[in-house]
Amino acid sequence: MLASLDQRPAYSPIVLAGLVRIADFLLICAVGFLVHRFYVAPAWGYTAAYAIAIPSIALLAVVFFQAIDINHVAAYRQPLDQGFRLVGAWASVFLAALAIVFFAKLEGVFSRVWLASWFLFGLAALLIERGFVSILVRRLTALGRLERRTVVVGGGEAGEKLLRDLASQKNSDVRVVGVFDDRTDDRSPDVLAGYPKLGKVDDLVEFARRTRIDLVIFALPITAEERLLTMLRKLWVLPIDIRLSAHTNKLRFRPRSYSYIGSVPVLDVFDKPIADWDVVTKWVFDKIVGTLALIALSPILALAALAVKLDSRGPVFFKQKRYGFNNELIEIYKFRSMYVDKLDATASRLVTRNDPRVTRVGRFIRKTSIDELPQLINVVFKGNLSLVGPRPHAVHAKAADREYDEVVDGYFARHRVRPGITGWAQVNGWRGETDTKEKLQRRVEHDLYYIENWSILFDLYILSITPFALAKSENAY
Question: Measured between alpha carbons, how far is 171 from 179 in angstroms, rounded to an integer?
Fold first, then answer.
């Protein structure tokens, strides 16, 4: 069953609702201007009053729709109820508009036929649009693209009560996949409230790497502090939301301390970094800026490719497997900087100063990071790299003769976001050779700081200082 699940990421309900709001606004404006174009403009021409009134009423409608709570996935799944409420809200918008026209003594400014036509055609357009949205949401729900795949950590009575409460939620986007628990006695049976026990907490990390998991809920009492911390230490490296079920805890907090999954109160422990609109913003930023950079740097790319080709035999590009988002293996592009018979695809041996494996051109392009520029192809066309993010490391890269995840505790937490061509660690001097635990530790610390403090302005700042950081770097060979 689990193997048949669609592994593609879920669509964000927050982004979907935002797009519907934008569609509402644009649709209302379009109908208003079209009615004006074919009825008002031929006789009275174009006036500023209509240009101001149409987007203002459209914005007021979006606010009213939000106030009556019809802009969320559960509402989209109920087109009949949504339609009745939309009619009421749309009528209220026009009553408010008419009141403003009356009290502001603007009766002679706007055409009554235009207002009536806009009301009727606008309502029809909105109902048709919401019908399409309902069909789309039902389709995406059937495909599993609008559900939050959830696992519960902790069996026993608390876990069973949580599972039954989650199952009783109507129109919920939560789909419980199973239960994980370290206990193997009667307190943690193989099937709990109809859901299978899938393994121990250690198994959950690998499970989340192979199957899409969006949410983990701990069904453990806060009093089990040591056990809870042990489990969190294992799971915080995953790019998922982690919550602590609060409905069975006797310790009560203020209501605003809780968030809710339906009616089930939970305490937020970890949030997936860069989610919802932030994902969209970063994706658009990467595509636009990455494309512009690829065009602007194309002369340098062409000259570098020619130099690599003339300097030594072999291909211009070097492809290497590295860890990407959520430990996914990705293939990145670089200009070849080593002799073809000495290439080290797994980076089992770090490049050092005056390394005999590196070509003459290779020393220059590695020192200046020109060898990394082909990764713009990964950003723009493949989408498995970002412009800014933790640098992706080769699969078997080592520090002090030990693989990176063995050297630094929580190393894989840097893979909670998509890796980048440049990053906060690189502009702070932590690029190049990582032959000691201390160097790797500092790099990971900077990567985690970036993840927790990400913003588009932060990305712009890192990109702007990257050339200066590269110019004074002493650790790249």
Answer: 22
Classify strands 259-261 and 215-218 as parallel, antiparallel or unpaired: unpaired
Q: pLDDT (tens digit, 9 = 90+) per residue, 153-169?
A: 987 788 888 899 888 88
Query: For 309-324, how does the pLDDT look when each residue is reduced to its tens digit (9 = 90+)?
Result: 998 898 999 998 898 9
Domains and CATH numbers, the chain: 13-142 (no CATH), 148-270 (3.40.50.720), 277-471 (no CATH)
Look up the pTM and report it. 0.85
Q: How large is the C-alpha radius of gyration of the chain?
A: 28
Are 178 and 146 a contacting pair, CB within 8 Å? no
Rounded CA gap, 188 and 419, in Å? Answer: 38
How many angstroms separate the CA atoms of 430 and 414, rounded?
15
Cα–Cα distance measured from residue 276 to residue 17, given in angstroms and rounded to the nearest whole number: 11
DSSP string of 402-430? Answer: EEHHHHSTTGGGGGGS--EEE-HHHHTT-
Residue type, 429: G
